[in-house]
Queue: 2 jobs
Job 1
Amino acid sequence: MLDFSSDYTRPGHPLLVDAIAKNQGTQFLPYGTDAVSSRAKARIREACRAPKAGVHFLLGGTQVNQLAIDALLRSFEGVIAADTGHISAHEAGAIEHGGHKVLTIPHKNGKLTADAVAAYCEAFYADGNHTHMVFPGMVYLSQPTEYGTLYFREELRALRRVCDRYSLRLYVDGARLAYALGAAENDVSLADLASVCDAFSIGGTKCGALFGEALVVPDPALTPQLFTVIKQHGALLAKGALLGLQFDALFAGALYLSIGKRAVALASLIRRTLTDKGYRQPLVSETNQIFLTLPDEQLEALQQQVRVSFWEKADAGHTVVRIATDWATTQDDVDALLALF
Amino acid sequence: MLDFSSDYTRPGHPLLVDAIAKNQGTQFLPYGTDAVSSRAKARIREACRAPKAGVHFLLGGTQVNQLAIDALLRSFEGVIAADTGHISAHEAGAIEHGGHKVLTIPHKNGKLTADAVAAYCEAFYADGNHTHMVFPGMVYLSQPTEYGTLYFREELRALRRVCDRYSLRLYVDGARLAYALGAAENDVSLADLASVCDAFSIGGTKCGALFGEALVVPDPALTPQLFTVIKQHGALLAKGALLGLQFDALFAGALYLSIGKRAVALASLIRRTLTDKGYRQPLVSETNQIFLTLPDEQLEALQQQVRVSFWEKADAGHTVVRIATDWATTQDDVDALLALF
Amino acid sequence: MLDFSSDYTRPGHPLLVDAIAKNQGTQFLPYGTDAVSSRAKARIREACRAPKAGVHFLLGGTQVNQLAIDALLRSFEGVIAADTGHISAHEAGAIEHGGHKVLTIPHKNGKLTADAVAAYCEAFYADGNHTHMVFPGMVYLSQPTEYGTLYFREELRALRRVCDRYSLRLYVDGARLAYALGAAENDVSLADLASVCDAFSIGGTKCGALFGEALVVPDPALTPQLFTVIKQHGALLAKGALLGLQFDALFAGALYLSIGKRAVALASLIRRTLTDKGYRQPLVSETNQIFLTLPDEQLEALQQQVRVSFWEKADAGHTVVRIATDWATTQDDVDALLALF
Amino acid sequence: MLDFSSDYTRPGHPLLVDAIAKNQGTQFLPYGTDAVSSRAKARIREACRAPKAGVHFLLGGTQVNQLAIDALLRSFEGVIAADTGHISAHEAGAIEHGGHKVLTIPHKNGKLTADAVAAYCEAFYADGNHTHMVFPGMVYLSQPTEYGTLYFREELRALRRVCDRYSLRLYVDGARLAYALGAAENDVSLADLASVCDAFSIGGTKCGALFGEALVVPDPALTPQLFTVIKQHGALLAKGALLGLQFDALFAGALYLSIGKRAVALASLIRRTLTDKGYRQPLVSETNQIFLTLPDEQLEALQQQVRVSFWEKADAGHTVVRIATDWATTQDDVDALLALF
């Protein structure tokens, strides 16, 4: 059966699986101290034009968010996020487990605006009782957002200026970053992220890797002893070379970018075709996700032939579903999918 | 160069790497809800003769210890461990990060005795101030221990009786469990563990897997909503099938056991030969680790040709080192190693 | 200067101060194990008609909320509260510091409705991703609310039925409980609270005591070793008799109730008079707090003669202020206040 | 019955009780923002010759330790303490509840030596695995110690030098500080503490106050937003003036010091007399506590006439007990006590 339910259904991109398989019996130094991991980190620093950046390989998206937030916040600080942010709703309280409140702001197409963040902070400091409240200490956003939309360079710079004004750190969750980098509309490079963020993640799991996220901290003085913090979080992989091998393959050439481009191109084709056929797309995504409102009967029939994701109920008789492409989606898959509409 | 430094230097056993590589492009349901993971869990339940057990796949040793301890303890309880226990010294405070104190007891050959635990608890409850202290809530031990020694069935049963008397949960860290199961002296089966423990782990990372530990909870009512707790800890793997594929391969037949047997047999050969050659072995390990006291000059020369682990300084002129075999160590490797002595 | 800014400006009711002063040199057993504390607890059990209840004396409102929530929730659970709830906004993240998320629901006059809680829980369990989210584990409400409004007996019973349906604990923050008990409209007795709640607090600090809140847990099996948890929270008072002496005085006769009645009667007089004079009261409080919208110039003039609390800006030219009476407010004070309008 | 069981049996010194009683109906600004609290803080700064110090009034000993340690440590750091330290054994895991490991070192007469701390740190940084371990981040000690012994100025300076060498903060728990300041042998002033410590507490609860500890942070930049952290810990007293009134009375003149001197003088008399009578005192205390080894039968008879504290069993037939004097002990009490021996 066709499966467009998500971008993390398949173990991994063949080049990454091969990198591991070829080295199946090679002996590496443990905990990421091996030479391949060092090389992979160097490649990422170069791609980000951030020669001093700390680069840390972690295992999954919630883990990297939880760790970065714990490492960058002080105990009396919380993190500002869109009410739709992954950390707000879908991480089972991982941030609160670390002791920090998620301070939610209404989103616009999944995005936070610099104005909304500034307004939040202004109101906070104007409140005579603010020392009885959680201080805003960070802005969390994701690129692309939960809704598949993109921040543009000027938007990030405006957010950075607000962060500077109110002593906030800026963290970007890049769980699906390849699909932002690969989007036609995108104008935010890795180097841009490194220049505006205090930390950001480069997602592997949803972008071709078996697992793994790279946490980039352009100024590593912000996160002293992060290796130990990672260990303390239960997040240190004994065989760290498994992460090094994968990120080395992703960043040796342009693989990471090309994975994104390919998936977005196919998603765009699906989007255009469905628009042409008159289907309603409630969210204007620009990346590898398509959101579609369908009558419930049509959805039921469709699900006999393709797996898609439930997103939310639109009304009594309609449902919003999500369709995702990934690095392995083929033109044939897309043709077969579109033939069902 | 020869490398006997640890049992987690190589990415993984060929059969496990193949299981992943063959399925590189297969689409699986996420978060361990796929059919292969279900089958792997069923195999583990069967191997443990624990048909109702909760089986949860996690990523690493510290993570599984931290999670099990958090899930099984109440806020006012701590965990009793040998002062040499991994959680006492080498997990960067992961247990305290979860809010629990590690209550240490001196070890005997790396082991806790039932008498020592009973004495601790008796003294605790006899202390008029004990409600101002951390209640013992669990016994943590590892099989094999940090020193490569083994608990025998009667020792575990005696510990269980003490646990019952003082309302303690019993948790066994099986990071290297294959090497216990594969030891000639061992009389503790997986089913024995399931019958005496409230929870235990079956280590993959150090026993042939790329990564992964199976947490077994014979009575799952003890750990409600553990899936959500795992997510909250940042410990949920999106592509859970990667763990399912590996544990399915390990437990489809006798692979897990045979990995242990083979490594222990070679370790025993090394141990015997070195003993015959008159080398001092300060710790009487029975599993895949050999501990050896060497004059510092000899060690320095040795390290030009083989990588071994520093364990501790014995005295001003001598050092204890650790030699470990694993699933991939060959007779040739062993011969080459022994030729150096 | 007149001061109607809050109900915690004065050290304490004369009878309570006297109870301490008279015993200034008496020697008591420590940590609340003394006879006076035992007698005070017995009086509270009797007043609540809860003969088996656990009664624990704590020091302040945030502390008792944080402790009760930590003690009653499991790690994967959060607490449902009105978005205006004290724990949501004004406790500096004390609940998240304990690892729990506050799950907010919009309020009606400061209150949560049973329907809103039921709808939240129904949506939660209907969500296919709910195991990736924080489970609702408790309903938090305050009696009276932040807005000075009251829950009625039938409303609490309806909330209890929802709690039973969804396995939620019900906790009532009674920081100002005397003023609820003393309100003309109130139909909720201490015994009613003990019959519907899993835990509730009886506030001392804002109701005549120097400091102190009594936490009542009708079924103490819900909170094992709570004494130790209190110690672990840094919340155990060495000289516990100071709390015992005060609660003994409050509950020896009807002092607690009469304190509330007196303050509410004067507040009602202020409310009625200001209404008669045409002042706008945006919140319909029934207890010891009056909320008043004033033109900014009038407020500025007023503040030369009486201290009131800023509540919020109503619009560009108007401000909402809070006026509070307490156990020490006199008819003369009220006359002097009303003469200013 | 005579009661020498501890120094926290009586509500409080008459001058402090009077300070509160006289102001029973005075209206104060809340949360310690009142003028009396400000004055009390100024007096403490002056007594410590630390004009810029942050001074924060808290409620109890465990609370102030937990708060100071949380505020001064980073997540990957633990606190070095004597194995007999209060935080090690008798705070119910309050430090671990805040996420930090207590790193214990054997004591000498209840004291840590600079050499022992230096040796711990040297061994830590020499350990090749130290990044997998909890970093030492602070030295905790108490003045006087649990055993009633004293640190001398040169000892504290030596500890400070070790702290500087290894980037440790130095925190002194002064729960019984008045009895150190009042000891004949003492050469450590408040100003000395302010010059060597990153933070220290001035205990009220055991030194004449009803309750209350002053936390002094000579360089307040070390603890940003500590007011909010206090609130988050549930440790902020609404009626902060109650603490201000007491510390104002203690530090307006020499009351704090004289309370200590008087109690120590009587304790010294008891010590000398018992020594002369041939009683064994296993711990050489210099402050307000006397430790005495008694045959069990004699102890049983004694306890019919005076309350003393159980300390520990010495051997099968002997017990160590503690006798404590306080600000209210009279010469008559002492004569009556000594008549029993």
Job 2
Amino acid sequence: MKAAVLYDTTSHNLNLLHWGHLEAPDPFFAIKICNRTIAFVSELEFGRFRSQSTFQEVHLWSEFRKGSSSNTPFWPSFFRFLQKQYAIDQFLLPNDFPASIYAEIVSVVPVAFDAAFFETQRAIKTVAEVGEIRKACTVAAKILQKTMEKIRNSTVKDGILYHEGKVLTSERLQGEMEVDALQQGCCAQGTIVAGGADAVDPHNPGSGVLREKQFIVIDFFPCLQSSHYYGDRTRTVFKGKPTEEQVRMYRAVQECQQLLIQRIRPGVYASELMSFALKFFEQQGFARKQTPNGCEGLIHSVGHGIGLDLHEYPSIGSQPIRLEPGMVVAIEPGLYFPSLGGVRMEDDVWITETGCEVLSPCEQGFEV
Amino acid sequence: MKAAVLYDTTSHNLNLLHWGHLEAPDPFFAIKICNRTIAFVSELEFGRFRSQSTFQEVHLWSEFRKGSSSNTPFWPSFFRFLQKQYAIDQFLLPNDFPASIYAEIVSVVPVAFDAAFFETQRAIKTVAEVGEIRKACTVAAKILQKTMEKIRNSTVKDGILYHEGKVLTSERLQGEMEVDALQQGCCAQGTIVAGGADAVDPHNPGSGVLREKQFIVIDFFPCLQSSHYYGDRTRTVFKGKPTEEQVRMYRAVQECQQLLIQRIRPGVYASELMSFALKFFEQQGFARKQTPNGCEGLIHSVGHGIGLDLHEYPSIGSQPIRLEPGMVVAIEPGLYFPSLGGVRMEDDVWITETGCEVLSPCEQGFEV
């Protein structure tokens, strides 16, 4: 029997949150043998873990601490106890397992690193998990809608957008969206409201005044405070009249996203989707290219798994990962050209037996 | 020469944030040799780290990755390069250094775990850091003040508090405080507004309706979004007329906190402060005692360091840690008795050459 081992906080290792569905601020110890999850926690957390977590066994950590004499180091004797108690042949560790514990046990019990096991743990979602992601997507949709309305209803003076008498800045919209999220039970941080040149860099959250005649990328990823599941959604809008080339670029991203979603079903490989998008954009005249200032076009992967973490397995990029029923992935093609601006469109989809379902569909945006 | 080594994200290892003062979502590698900090980052982060971080050297990680051939494992050759380049005799690792990297280098270069080095890294604050903590304390004070006003101005019906026509619950006040914090540039999570029995458990955030004739503990710890420094502050209020015993308990906590703050100066040991508080409460008739249902009285330490983390070195508990000028500590004595309720009073103080200064002093509370 193999046992996967974690010693961490739930915020740093979301597999622990996945095993127990209970947030804990301090590190604790847990193992998983087949589908059985077992936690070893402090006295402070014992009652709460027993009554509220989904661990099948919860043990009082101090019982084992007490048992080990001050002469024998704790970790080796604890791992030997586990080995015997649960008939464990090998302990599987994540790459970031605490080195000081590893150093004490490596010559005592059989251990191995198994990054893939831990990385793929949360890939297949239960219906309840999909329900949580859907809730977060709905909050994201509502608030994105409201933000697009503000830009739609804004007035323009000297090229700058104003709403309700005050200038519209990236920071203002980010702040208003994050406050709205909190009022709807979600924590949202790092919200992107990026106009013009800011939108050409997908990692730039955006700052300063928002202007007409440029793309504004709004990427919003609220996390439900109650369950810690994320939704991830991006819309791109444009105040004023775009050039023909800008219209073509927006339509290309929009069509690419729709075609990707149509192609998603069990058995398709992530890398096929990535290749499809690159080829599609090339055919549309928006090929990826290297310039002296960096890369232009589709410069990131076209998606990623989503759940307890914002970005998790599987990445929809160059790796040939087979898509399976039950995965939930964000699909987010985008195009970035300094001469035109940045456009990205993102929705989360649930992979079913035969295709996929967009979670909480919402308005597309663009010319407002 | 010894080199401290980190490979982590800034959110999980705040020493990385302390070295660079720049948040980074992905793990990166950094070393510190004497007071020289050196970062190795990805292409994506290179420009940002060069221009915005406080690292004295920033290197492009991929340069080293490229250099190592696919036949030789990367980590051993990278550590050997560092050893030679910076004349390093020993690499110091935190206990939670990634085990998979440790396993590759332990037989190649001299390494040692040094938990104390990493734990104490951020203990002495610069004047700029104190300024940030003071800002967070000021936000905490303003919002606590507003919350106390709401309870003061509430009406009572059947023992339950109402404000502006709606029932006052823990969740409502927590939500309102956290939204206020966000509007003032702070992220606040886990806010405690705990009345009655909830307040007797210092870890209970509180839930449900708030009532008259019981202590309400409000513990609020906003974190500045711009710099990630925390403020930590607790007030206890009481709507209606307390019993004599409750008044005595509140006054005991209040006096204890004032006496602790008077005693804080360089050279004093944390454990002396803890002993003082236990003895003081005993003399006041509120001795700590063990009951069949757990511990009553002062059941936690009387304080902790504060900075980039909410709780950091030094703990003001049973350990004999010497207080030094430049430390910033939260001082938070409390008493918890099921028969009376819970009372806690908390402020952050900056240890000076001769004593200490309360950061952004504010109203005390109690009978509202």
